[in-house]
Design goal:
Blueprint: E1 4-7, E2 11-17, E3 33-39, H1 41-52, E4 57-59, E5 62-63, H2 66-75, E6 84-85, E7 91-96, E8 102-106, H3 116-122, H4 125-128, E9 132-136, H5 142-145, H6 148-157, E10 161-165, H7 175-185, E11 190-194, H8 195-202, H9 207-216, E12 223-227, E13 233-236, E14 242-245, H10 258-271, H11 276-291
Parallel strand pairs: 1-4, 1-9, 2-7, 5-6, 9-10, 10-11, 11-12
Antiparallel strand pairs: 2-3, 7-8, 12-13, 13-14
Helix pairs in contact: 1-10, 8-9, 10-11
Length: about 300
C-alpha cells in the first residue's frame, strides 16, 4: 500500500438540527439531533481512515484550550507532535436543514496560524516517499497557503503525489481565487473537487468538461475527480476518458463532511492499486454510508472498500 497522509484543517464541529424555517432573532428553537465531533476537512478524512483501518499520518495543529486537548485525544499517538497555538481552537456550529443543506458558523481560532513549519515538524518525507498527501482546507489555513510552493517542492523531492481539495472559498470563486487554485493544481497529481467547485473553477457548466479543463493544467499523468453528491462521482483520467459511478439511494441524516469521507475512501482504494472506477465506487459507498447513519458508520454492509 502506498503511504497516505493528510494535511490541513482539524477543528471541532457541533452539529444541530434540523431547523426550518430559519428562526427569528430573539427566539429559541428545539431540534431533534445534536452531535459534537471532530471536524474540518482533514479531520473528517482522518476519521474515515481510522474507521476503515487504513494506515496514515496527519499533520494538523490545535488551540491551547479544552477543545484542543479533546481533538488531540481523539487521534491518540498521531496527535502527539501536533503544534499547539496560543489561541482558541477553531469551532464550527453546523445547523442542518430538512432538505439536506446546512449552514455553518465558524470561529477563526487556531487554523490561520497553521504553517509549513508545523507540517514539516510532523511528517517524515522519506517515510512518505512514493505515497499520497491529501492537502485540504486551503482557504482556512492562510499561513500554510503562503508557503504552498515550498510544500509542493518538498513533496516533489520525496516523490509524494499531492491530492488537492481546496474547499469553497469564503468569498467565492473570485478571479484571484481561481488563479490561485489553478496555480496549486499545476503542482498536484490528483484533484478532488465537488461539482459546483469544479464547474465554477473551470467556468463551464458540464462537470466532465470542467474536469477535462482542469486536468489540462495539471502535470502529466494527473487525474481529476468530481464529487456529484446524490448523482455519484466522475473522474477524468490522463487520457481524458470519463468514468462515472452512481450513488445508492440513502435516507440522509446529515451530509456534513461527505466529500471529505469520499476523499479518504477513494484514496484508500487508490493507494492499494484500485483503478479509477473501483476507487470512485469505494468513495461513493463509504460516503453514502456515513451520511445516512447516526452515530456514523463508514463500512458499507457486504462491501470491500479497498478493492
Amino acid at each position: 500500500m502506498k503511504p497516505l497522509a493528510v494535511i490541513g484543517n482539524v477543528n471541532v464541529d457541533l452539529i444541530m438540527g434540523p431547523a426550518a424555517p430559519w428562526p427569528q432573532p430573539g427566539t429559541e428553537s428545539i431540534v431533534d439531533h445534536d452531535e459534537l465531533r471532530v471536524g474540518g476537512s482533514a479531520g473528517n478524512a482522518a476519521l474515515a481512515w481510522m474507521a476503515l483501518g487504513t494506515p496514515f499520518e496527519i499533520a494538523a495543529s490545535i488551540g491551547r484550550d479544552q477543545f484542543g486537548r479533546w481533538l488531540a485525544e481523539s487521534f491518540g499517538a498521531r496527535a502527539s507532535t501536533w503544534p499547539v497555538h496560543g489561541d482558541s481552537t477553531t469551532l464550527s456550529v453546523g445547523i442542518t436543514h430538512p432538505d439536506g443543506e446546512r449552514t455553518f458558523f465558524t470561529t477563526r481560532g487556531h487554523l490561520p496560524l497553521f504553517s509549513l513549519e508545523d507540517v514539516l515538524s510532523v511528517l517524515d518525507g522519506p517515510r512518505l516517499s512514493g505515497g499520497i498527501a491529501l492537502l485540504c482546507g486551503s482557504f482556512l489555513t492562510e499561513r500554510l497557503v503562503e508557503d504552498y510552493d515550498r510544500f509542493f517542492d518538498w513533496a516533489d523531492r520525496h516523490d509524494i503525489a499531492v491530492a488537492l481539495d481546496t474547499g469553497w472559498p469564503l468569498d467565492g470563486w473570485t478571479e484571484a481565487n481561481r488563479r490561485a487554485a489553478k496555480r496549486w493544481l499545476s503542482r498536484c497529481r490528483i484533484a478532488l473537487f465537488n461539482e459546483v467547485e469544479t464547474t465554477s473553477l473551470a467556468g463551464v457548466a458540464d462537470p466532465a468538461e470542467a474536469a477535462r479543463i482542469l486536468r489540462q493544467g495539471m502535470p502529466e499523468g494527473s487525474f481529476v475527480v468530481v464529487k456529484c453528491g446524490p448523482k455519484g462521482a466522475i473522474a477524468v483520467d490522463p487520457d481524458e476518458r470519463v468514468f462515472h459511478v452512481a450513488a445508492p439511494f440513502v435516507q440522509v441524516v446529515d451530509t456534513i463532511g461527505a466529500g471529505d469521507v469520499f476523499n479518504a475512501a477513494f484514496l484508500a482504494s487508490h493507494a492499494v492499486g484500485g483503478g479509477l472506477e473501483a476507487s470512485l465506487a469505494a468513495g461513493t459507498a463509504v460516503a453514502s454510508r456515513a451520511i445516512s447513519t447516526h452515530p456514523r458508520s463508514y463500512t458499507p454492509t457486504g462491501q470491500d472498500t479497498t478493492a
